[in-house]
Amino acid sequence: MNEPPKTASSHMLRNAGLVAVVLIVAGAAAGIVPRKQQQAALRAEMEELAVPTVAVVAPSPGQTTLGLPLSAEIKPWIDAPIYARASGYLKQRLVDIGANVTNGQLLAELDAPELEQNLLRARAELAQAEASLVIAKATAARWAELLRSGNVSEQETAEKDADHKLKVAVVEANKANVRRLADLLSFTRVTAPFDGVVVARNTDVGDLLLADSVGKELFRIAQTHKLRVFVRVPQSFSRSVAPGQTAELTIPELPGRVFAATVVRTSGAMSADSRTLLTELEVDNKKREIFSGSFAQVRLTEAKQEAALTLPANTLLFRAEGPQVGVVPSDNKVELRSVKLGRDFGPIVEILGGVATTDRVILNPSDSLISGATVRIAQ
Predict the structure, then answer these.
(1) How far apart are CA 105 and CA 121, in angstroms?
(2) Which residues are bridge partners to 75 per DSSP?
(3) How many Cβ atoms from other residues are within 10 Å of residue 144's Cβ?
(4) Measured CA distances, 254 to 73, 280, 289, 298, 357 (Å)
(5) Fold of 83-191
(6) With b meaning 16 or more CB within 10 Å and e meaning fewer, what string describes 129-140?
(7) DSSP H or E run through 173
(8) Helix and strand tally (H, E) in the chain?
(9) C-alpha 148, offset from chain centre
(10) Domain boundaries defined on the chain
């Protein structure tokens, strides 16, 4: 038999086997690699899905309400009741309500006959005391000369000198009584204490007026060229109000009109019943457009107020530690922070402490949220 052809055939078979093995290995590799890649992609996807995606919001300053109108009461710059300082009957009345009066102007006159008689008697007693003083003075001088000549004793001279001093004191007392009664009689002429307008008149001719604490008020005079405006500022805005700030005054009966007002002073203490700060403003009223006693509204336009931060209500977690929020720092690991709540406006809540405007706060946090958990920020 011929050997070489057999060797060639074996060599060809061996090469074919090697090719087949290579093809099998290549086919197996072609199937395994995609499967591995698919498994790796699936594993990465599962790991990615295991990290929750959250939406975040930043705390923002709330709107200040200092621009809202506050109820105010308008009062005269000066307001004074006028009473009689002497008892008597009203003889004549020279002014009525609405009259403009000046300082010192005569408003009314009283008839006080008893007071006039008392003044006459006091003057007569003064004249009697002055006559007695003349005699006592002369007597004391004469007895002083007699003492030098030795005709009278020192005791008698001292008595005459003391009687003279007593008569001097009696004269001074009578003079004081005359001045007092004269002043009281001058009060029968009722005059205006300052420039203003008569806003009330409560008596008429013939009324009996008594000069005591329960006496009847004759008139009420008010000065209205400037007005005082009193407003109660809520406690939360009390520290933002200061003298010198300007404000806007509006009156319901004058729609569209805005009057400039200025804060002049505050009470410096909160009212215990309303927790408000009584604030006084000044408004010019030279044209008499504003009636004192009116109701008004005031806007404190220059008051500076730092508004508290606010967050949506659905960012809060209520746990045993108190209200908390989930904050996502730069490393995307959750940090639970306790916060101090302010006013609740429904969908929005004031946050008085615990977060800043740069923080990223999780919206709709899950009840299972814990510190240190990794999250992804939704784009």
Answers:
(1) 30
(2) 228
(3) 13
(4) 15, 22, 9, 14, 43
(5) Helix Hairpins (1.10.287)
(6) beebbeebbebb
(7) helix 154-186
(8) 3, 23
(9) 82
(10) 54-64+307-377, 83-191
User: Does pLDDT of 39 surpass 80?
Assistant: no
- Give the integer Cα–Cα distance in Å for 225 and 168: 53
What does the CA dihedral 270, 276, 277, 280 come to, rounded to 10 degrees?
Answer: -140
Q: Rounded CA gap, 302 and 342, in Å?
A: 24
The full length of the chain comes to: 379
- pLDDT (tens digit per residue) in 110-159: 999 999 999 999 999 999 999 999 999 999 888 888 888 878 888 888 88
336-344: long-range contacts, CB 8 A cutoff, minimum separation 24: 336/369, 336/370, 336/371, 341/316, 342/308, 344/313
In the numeric block, the tokens 């006013």 are attached to 343
Its pTM stands at 0.60
**What's the burial of 110, exposed, middle or buried (CB within 10 Å: 0-12/13-18/19+)?**
buried
Cβ atoms of 308 and 341 within 8 Å: the answer is: no
Beta bridge partners of 322: 319
Residue with the two structure tokens 């009066």: 101
- Yes or no: is domain 54-64+307-377 CATH 2.40.420.20? yes
pLDDT band at 176 (very low <50, low <70, confident <90, very high): very high
User: To which H or E segment does residue 259 belong?
Assistant: strand 259-270
Give the bridge partners for 76, in sequence order. Answer: 227
